[in-house]
Protein backbone atom coordinates (compact mmCIF):
# COMPACT_ATOMS: atom_id res chain seq x y z
CA UNK A 1 0.00 0.00 0.00
CA UNK A 2 1.56 3.27 -1.18
CA UNK A 3 -0.49 5.44 1.17
CA UNK A 4 -1.98 7.40 -1.75
CA UNK A 5 -5.76 7.06 -2.01
CA UNK A 6 -7.70 7.60 -5.20
CA UNK A 7 -11.46 7.52 -5.60
CA UNK A 8 -13.40 6.25 -7.37
CA UNK A 9 -11.61 3.16 -8.70
CA UNK A 10 -13.88 2.95 -11.71
CA UNK A 11 -16.01 5.56 -13.45
CA UNK A 12 -18.30 5.06 -16.42
CA UNK A 13 -19.88 8.07 -18.01
CA UNK A 14 -21.11 9.44 -21.32
CA UNK A 15 -19.61 11.84 -23.82
CA UNK A 16 -20.13 15.47 -22.95
CA UNK A 17 -20.31 14.83 -19.23
CA UNK A 18 -18.11 16.15 -16.41
CA UNK A 19 -16.41 14.05 -13.73
CA UNK A 20 -14.22 14.68 -10.71
CA UNK A 21 -11.42 12.38 -9.62
CA UNK A 22 -10.15 12.64 -6.08
CA UNK A 23 -6.73 11.99 -4.56
CA UNK A 24 -5.44 11.99 -1.00
CA UNK A 25 -1.63 12.02 -0.85
CA UNK A 26 0.52 10.12 1.62
CA UNK A 27 0.57 11.65 5.05
CA UNK A 28 3.09 14.50 5.08
CA UNK A 29 3.51 14.72 1.31
CA UNK A 30 3.07 18.22 -0.08
CA UNK A 31 3.20 17.50 -3.81
CA UNK A 32 0.51 15.86 -5.87
CA UNK A 33 0.93 14.82 -9.48
CA UNK A 34 -1.67 13.68 -12.00
CA UNK A 35 -0.87 11.30 -14.85
CA UNK A 36 -2.98 9.87 -17.64
CA UNK A 37 -2.27 6.38 -18.96
CA UNK A 38 -3.93 5.39 -22.20
CA UNK A 39 -3.10 2.46 -24.45
CA UNK A 40 -1.59 4.50 -27.24
CA UNK A 41 0.00 7.32 -25.25
CA UNK A 42 1.71 5.62 -22.35
CA UNK A 43 1.99 7.48 -19.05
CA UNK A 44 1.53 11.21 -19.67
CA UNK A 45 2.18 13.87 -17.06
CA UNK A 46 -0.75 16.23 -16.65
CA UNK A 47 -0.12 18.60 -13.76
CA UNK A 48 1.60 18.99 -10.40
CA UNK A 49 0.57 20.88 -7.29
CA UNK A 50 2.79 21.73 -4.37
CA UNK A 51 1.25 22.85 -1.10
CA UNK A 52 -1.82 24.22 -2.85
CA UNK A 53 -0.06 25.96 -5.72
CA UNK A 54 0.28 24.80 -9.30
CA UNK A 55 3.92 23.83 -9.76
CA UNK A 56 4.21 22.34 -13.24
CA UNK A 57 1.98 21.67 -16.20
CA UNK A 58 2.29 18.96 -18.80
CA UNK A 59 0.01 17.81 -21.57
CA UNK A 60 -3.19 18.79 -19.86
CA UNK A 61 -6.14 19.72 -22.06
CA UNK A 62 -8.04 22.96 -21.48
CA UNK A 63 -11.12 20.85 -20.71
CA UNK A 64 -9.26 19.46 -17.70
CA UNK A 65 -8.49 21.34 -14.51
CA UNK A 66 -7.16 20.46 -11.11
CA UNK A 67 -6.69 21.95 -7.70
CA UNK A 68 -5.12 21.11 -4.37
CA UNK A 69 -6.99 22.00 -1.24
CA UNK A 70 -5.66 23.25 2.14
CA UNK A 71 -5.84 19.70 3.53
CA UNK A 72 -3.58 18.74 0.57
CA UNK A 73 -6.05 16.46 -1.16
CA UNK A 74 -6.42 17.11 -4.86
CA UNK A 75 -9.16 16.86 -7.43
CA UNK A 76 -8.90 16.48 -11.19
CA UNK A 77 -11.91 17.76 -13.09
CA UNK A 78 -12.57 16.48 -16.59
CA UNK A 79 -15.30 18.18 -18.59
CA UNK A 80 -16.92 17.86 -22.02
CA UNK A 81 -15.68 14.30 -22.03
CA UNK A 82 -14.79 12.60 -25.29
CA UNK A 83 -14.30 8.94 -26.12
CA UNK A 84 -10.54 9.55 -26.26
CA UNK A 85 -10.47 10.61 -22.63
CA UNK A 86 -11.01 7.01 -21.60
CA UNK A 87 -7.87 6.10 -19.68
CA UNK A 88 -6.39 5.18 -16.34
CA UNK A 89 -5.77 8.34 -14.32
CA UNK A 90 -3.08 8.15 -11.67
CA UNK A 91 -2.39 10.40 -8.78
CA UNK A 92 1.05 10.34 -7.20
CA UNK A 93 2.59 12.19 -4.29
CA UNK A 94 5.99 13.15 -2.97
CA UNK A 95 7.26 14.99 0.06
CA UNK A 96 8.76 18.02 -1.65
CA UNK A 97 8.16 20.12 -4.72
CA UNK A 98 10.30 18.05 -6.99
CA UNK A 99 13.84 16.97 -6.31
CA UNK A 100 15.71 14.87 -8.85
CA UNK A 101 16.14 12.07 -6.32
CA UNK A 102 12.55 12.05 -5.13
CA UNK A 103 10.49 9.03 -6.07
CA UNK A 104 6.76 9.20 -6.54
CA UNK A 105 4.24 7.12 -4.65
CA UNK A 106 1.29 6.21 -6.86
CA UNK A 107 -2.32 5.59 -6.04
CA UNK A 108 -4.12 2.63 -7.57
CA UNK A 109 -5.67 4.82 -10.26
CA UNK A 110 -9.14 5.67 -11.51
CA UNK A 111 -10.23 3.82 -14.62
CA UNK A 112 -12.40 6.19 -16.64
CA UNK A 113 -14.58 4.83 -19.40
CA UNK A 114 -16.38 7.32 -21.63
CA UNK A 115 -19.18 5.70 -23.64
CA UNK B 1 10.68 15.50 -27.62
CA UNK B 2 10.79 12.03 -26.11
CA UNK B 3 13.38 12.02 -23.37
CA UNK B 4 13.03 8.43 -22.23
CA UNK B 5 13.26 5.62 -24.77
CA UNK B 6 12.42 2.00 -24.13
CA UNK B 7 12.99 0.16 -27.38
CA UNK B 8 11.62 -3.24 -26.33
CA UNK B 9 7.80 -3.29 -26.43
CA UNK B 10 7.85 -6.89 -25.20
CA UNK B 11 10.34 -9.32 -23.73
CA UNK B 12 10.23 -12.99 -22.80
CA UNK B 13 12.41 -14.70 -20.24
CA UNK B 14 12.55 -18.20 -18.85
CA UNK B 15 11.84 -18.58 -15.16
CA UNK B 16 15.02 -18.40 -13.02
CA UNK B 17 17.00 -16.68 -15.75
CA UNK B 18 18.17 -13.05 -15.79
CA UNK B 19 16.75 -10.42 -18.10
CA UNK B 20 17.81 -6.91 -19.07
CA UNK B 21 15.28 -4.22 -19.92
CA UNK B 22 16.74 -1.34 -21.90
CA UNK B 23 16.32 2.36 -21.22
CA UNK B 24 18.05 5.34 -22.76
CA UNK B 25 17.47 8.94 -21.85
CA UNK B 26 18.25 12.40 -23.09
CA UNK B 27 19.12 15.34 -20.88
CA UNK B 28 21.52 18.24 -20.72
CA UNK B 29 21.12 18.58 -16.96
CA UNK B 30 23.93 17.48 -14.67
CA UNK B 31 21.56 16.60 -11.85
CA UNK B 32 18.89 14.05 -12.60
CA UNK B 33 17.39 10.88 -11.23
CA UNK B 34 16.48 7.66 -13.00
CA UNK B 35 13.73 5.36 -11.77
CA UNK B 36 12.14 2.06 -12.66
CA UNK B 37 8.56 1.20 -11.88
CA UNK B 38 6.66 -2.06 -12.26
CA UNK B 39 3.01 -2.18 -13.27
CA UNK B 40 1.42 -5.64 -12.82
CA UNK B 41 -1.87 -6.53 -14.44
CA UNK B 42 -3.69 -5.19 -11.40
CA UNK B 43 -2.63 -1.71 -12.53
CA UNK B 44 -0.77 -0.17 -9.62
CA UNK B 45 2.63 1.46 -10.13
CA UNK B 46 5.31 -0.03 -7.89
CA UNK B 47 8.67 1.69 -7.37
CA UNK B 48 11.60 -0.67 -7.92
CA UNK B 49 14.91 1.16 -7.99
CA UNK B 50 16.54 4.58 -8.20
CA UNK B 51 19.86 5.83 -9.62
CA UNK B 52 21.16 9.36 -9.17
CA UNK B 53 23.24 11.02 -11.85
CA UNK B 54 26.10 11.56 -9.40
CA UNK B 55 26.05 8.01 -8.04
CA UNK B 56 29.21 6.18 -9.01
CA UNK B 57 27.95 2.76 -8.01
CA UNK B 58 25.15 0.98 -9.81
CA UNK B 59 22.02 0.79 -7.69
CA UNK B 60 20.82 -2.57 -6.43
CA UNK B 61 17.62 -3.61 -4.66
CA UNK B 62 17.33 -7.32 -4.04
CA UNK B 63 16.98 -9.05 -7.42
CA UNK B 64 16.91 -5.71 -9.23
CA UNK B 65 19.99 -3.85 -10.35
CA UNK B 66 20.43 -0.84 -12.55
CA UNK B 67 23.20 -0.88 -15.14
CA UNK B 68 23.99 2.84 -15.31
CA UNK B 69 26.22 3.98 -18.17
CA UNK B 70 26.28 7.75 -17.93
CA UNK B 71 28.32 8.47 -21.04
CA UNK B 72 25.94 6.37 -23.12
CA UNK B 73 22.91 7.79 -21.29
CA UNK B 74 21.54 4.38 -20.55
CA UNK B 75 19.94 3.00 -17.41
CA UNK B 76 19.08 -0.63 -18.03
CA UNK B 77 17.19 -2.67 -15.46
CA UNK B 78 18.52 -6.14 -14.74
CA UNK B 79 16.24 -8.65 -13.04
CA UNK B 80 18.04 -11.73 -11.81
CA UNK B 81 16.47 -15.13 -11.17
CA UNK B 82 13.17 -14.21 -12.82
CA UNK B 83 9.98 -15.34 -11.15
CA UNK B 84 6.50 -15.79 -12.60
CA UNK B 85 5.37 -12.82 -10.51
CA UNK B 86 7.80 -10.60 -12.41
CA UNK B 87 5.49 -10.69 -15.44
CA UNK B 88 4.35 -7.07 -15.77
CA UNK B 89 4.90 -3.77 -17.56
CA UNK B 90 8.13 -2.03 -16.62
CA UNK B 91 8.59 1.71 -16.97
CA UNK B 92 11.79 3.70 -16.96
CA UNK B 93 11.45 7.30 -15.74
CA UNK B 94 13.59 10.38 -15.24
CA UNK B 95 13.46 13.54 -13.16
CA UNK B 96 15.65 16.46 -14.22
CA UNK B 97 16.57 18.99 -11.56
CA UNK B 98 13.38 20.09 -9.86
CA UNK B 99 11.07 18.99 -12.64
CA UNK B 100 8.33 16.42 -12.82
CA UNK B 101 8.90 12.74 -13.59
CA UNK B 102 8.62 11.63 -17.22
CA UNK B 103 8.14 8.04 -18.29
CA UNK B 104 9.13 5.86 -21.20
CA UNK B 105 6.60 3.84 -23.19
CA UNK B 106 7.25 0.73 -21.15
CA UNK B 107 8.32 -2.87 -21.77
CA UNK B 108 5.98 -5.80 -21.20
CA UNK B 109 7.91 -8.66 -19.60
CA UNK B 110 6.55 -12.19 -19.71
CA UNK B 111 8.21 -14.85 -17.59
CA UNK B 112 7.73 -18.36 -18.97
CA UNK B 113 7.62 -21.39 -16.68
Quick description:
Chain A is mainly beta and 115 residues long. Chain A is built from no helices and eleven strands.
How does this structure look, described?
The complex is a heterodimer of chains A (115) and B (113). Chain A is an all-beta fold. Chain A contains no helices and eleven strands. In chain A, the strands form two sheets. In chain A, strands 2, 4, 5, 6, 9, 10 and 11 form a seven-stranded mixed beta sheet that branches. In chain A, strands 1-3-8-7 form a four-stranded antiparallel beta sheet, with no helix packed on it. The mean pLDDT of chain A is 94. Chain B is an all-beta fold and 113 residues long. Chain B is 0% helix and 52% strand. Chain B contains no helices and twelve strands. In chain B, strands 2, 5, 6, 10, 11 and 12 form a six-stranded mixed beta sheet that branches. Chain B starts with a strand and ends with a strand. The interface between A and B is medium-sized, with 26 and 27 residues.
Task: Give the assembly state of these chains.
Answer: heterodimer
- Helix and strand element order of chain B: EEEEEEEEEEEE
Percent of residues in helices of chain A comes to: under 10%
The structural class of chain B is mainly beta
Low-confidence stretches of chain A: none
From the alpha carbons, calculate the radius of gyration of chain A and give it in angstroms. Answer: 13 Å
Provide the gyration radius of chain B in Å: 13 Å
Using the alpha-carbon principal axes, give the shape of chain A.
globular
In percent, how much strand structure appears in the residues of chain B? over 45%
Overall pLDDT score of chain A: 94
Structural class of chain A: mainly beta
Helical fraction of chain B equals under 10%
Instruction: Let me know the number of strands of chain B.
Output: 12
The average pLDDT score of chain B comes to 94
| Helix-strand topology string of chain A | EEEEEEEEEEE
Main beta sheet strand tally, sense and closure of chain A: 7 strands, mixed
Tell me the strand percentage band of chain A: over 45%
Distance between the termini of chain B: 39 Å
Overall geometry of chain B comes to globular
